[in-house]
Amino acid sequence: MVCSARPPRTGRSAPSRAGLKDGQSVLLRVLGDGPIGAVIAQANAEGHVRGYAVHPHADLPHTQARKLDVGGLVGRNGMLHVTRDLGLRTPYHGCAPLVSGEIAEDLASYFVTSEQVPSVVALGVLVGPDLRVLASGGVCVQALPGARREVIDELDARARRLPPITQMMSAGQSAEEILAVSLGDLSPHLGPLTPLAFHCRCSRERVEGMLSLLGAAELQALLEEEGRAEVTCRFCGDRYVLSETEVRELIARLNAAPPDLRRQADSDERRSKGKPKPSVM
Questions:
Q1: For the range 150-153, what are the long-range contacts, defined as Cβ-Cβ under 8 Å and sequence gap of 24 or more?
Q2: Helix 244-255 and helix 216-226: axis angle, to 10°?
């Protein structure tokens, strides 16, 4: 899979949609010990992508090679969690320790250690002098079951000789051209292309559903303390405010729920004690 994107919030293409089928999605959580905090990214088969960092304004000096110190910002100790929602009863979840904080290296390590799939991953972000992101993209090549060892070794060798992704993007190379450089004479078959675009699925209905998980008692306490409920989506920054009347209506619906649902809400409320108010959808 190879993809490249340029602002504003629109992408060129992503061949094969990273192995996802219609209605499926994948969520990455990079939980390192660096100053940027957790990094979250989500994408689905339709090419919709979104993500955020807990502390997006964290900064460190560039490396000696004049590159962004991604590993220093993310941290070199922590875990990478991958959740695939394949439309089944339970999503698939895998995890692996971070190896460097450099996202590409951590992903390649995850694929080998957690999913036992030899993989080559290269990522890049092109940043302008004013620190605006000009382009971003990446290559992920994975061995299929039964792949010959010499093919895997050749892919690994080619990956080590690849120009930086940012260099290829700044030269105006398309996703297809980057794929050709990555695979050389291995005769790749180009599948359907999926346009990429930033898309956030937050909504007022999702906010109400998330607040319902707090339970009636917790919502009542929130109402007495603040007089309303306010939730901000970290993915897109949209802010949702529920007035006192709307919160009281939500409490009334919870109190009118069947006993089994009320017991579940009470259980969720007990688990949420001492946790910060929700701010992500």
A1: 151/186, 152/118
A2: 160
Q: Given the structure tokens 């992704």, which residue do they identify?
A: 165
Is 277 inside any structural domain? no
pLDDT at 261: 53
Mean pLDDT of 242-269: 77
What does the block give as tokens for 159?
A: 């990956």
Cα→Cα distances 13→17, 85, 133, 193, 266, Å: 9, 22, 18, 6, 45
Give Cα separations from 37 to 34, 72, 77, 161, 272 (angstroms).
6, 11, 12, 32, 21
pTM over 0.85: no
The alpha carbon of residue 76 and the mean position of all alpha carbons in its chain are separated, in whole angstroms, by 18
Instruction: Decide the pairing of beta strands 197-198 and 48-53.
Output: parallel
Radius of gyration of the chain, Cα coordinates, nearest whole angstrom: 22
Is the domain of 93 the same as that of 168?
yes
The residue whose two tokens read 């992408």 is 11
pLDDT at 229: 95
Question: Quick one: tokens of 181?
Answer: 């450089």
Here the CATH number for the domain that contains residue 59 is 3.55.30.10
Domain of 245, in residue numbers: 204-272
The string of pLDDT tens digits covering residues 104-152 is 999 999 999 999 888 888 888 888 888 788 888 888 888 888 888 888 8
Name beta bridge partners: 26.
43, 84
Q: Write out the two tokens for 184.
A: 């050389």
Query: Which residue among 156, 178, 198 closes a domain?
Result: 198
